[in-house]
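User: Can you write out an input/output pair for a complex, sequences first and structure second?

Assistant: Here is one pair. Inputs:
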Amino acid sequence: MKRNALVPLVILVVIVGLLWAAVHNLRERRLQMEQQAATHVDLIPDNANAPAAQGSPGSSSPDTEDAEPDLRGKMAPAFTLVSLDGKKVSLADYKGKAVLINFWATWCGPCKLEMPWFIDLQKKYAAQGFTVLGISEDDGGKDEVQKFATKIGVNYPILLENGAAGKAYGGVEYLPTSYYVDRGGKIVAESAGLISKDEIEANIQKAMAGGGAPVPTPVQTAAKPAGGE
Amino acid sequence: MMRGYSPKFTVLVALFSFAALSLRSVHAQQESLSIPGISSTAHSKQFVTLANGDAATAAANKPTVVELRFRVDSGLHVHSHTPSSEFYIPTTLTLLPDSGVAVKGIAYPPGQAYSFSAAPKEKLSVYTGEFVVKATVLMPAGSHTLRGTLRYQACDNGSCFPPRTLPVSVVVEAR
């Protein structure tokens, strides 16, 4: 009798185990597919916009394994990050404006060279509905970034990477990397590695020209310090 | 003999086998999820290698200098141990404590002056090509393995890679 009672019990346990395994498998497979979709990137076949191709410094730049994905013509991936003054800042907050998204770090020499140019261009074009958003890839903490931004005199929002923003842009493998977003939210130009101030300005003008009519810009954008809006 | 296996027992064995296979499948998926993606694979790529990973010799029970020769990939530079800015990441060798081996000091070479073409006046202090870090160690006779890491941050003349940590391991024969 005992044996007769034990067998159905064991069968029940096994069936429950099977159901659990099936559900777990399904969940894991979905998660895996989502992760694969999130990390899917299209590499630029001819590395057309890489520093070497642009004839700019950085000609010995990263090989194709590290090539940044070509996002030109695509909608800029959304992100929400915390600025140096602790506020949440989203790309969506700048709807209707042209935006230069610049991935940088305090330890990156070429990034440091570009930043004074960004400061100048922020002053020049902010009133026309343009802003630079600097995304710091530092992992040493906010204080270091704040110290650097203050020393350079950054006049545009500096946001702190949370691991998701760079990933959304295909994984930022080297710095500086910049994306130029038009007023409609579309990426119209991108650069990996140091490029000249003239090239940056041309890309900004391209971003400001695309995506519809400019949206009136609050005056505070131009003079806003590194913390954000 | 076959009379001993009842239909219930056969069903039970089949169910157990199926359950085992299903659980194995779960385990296999968990392993595959831990495989690094494109981004993390690229991040693990090293731009500095240890050029003399072979065994070194040292005098037993006497402070001895062990030279660790590193090679920076062509076209790249890393900041020296004393970079030109507080924000740059210094190349730093860290040797882990090992039984019987005492690390008395680590000496780095001076950096070479380097400037980005866009800012010729700003001088960086960098290592390019090969550079030698000298570790002074004290160890008893026998074979010892010096283990540690080299932290560095590499750039070319227009872009920079995130900091890397290179595992270092050198066998030292003390006689």
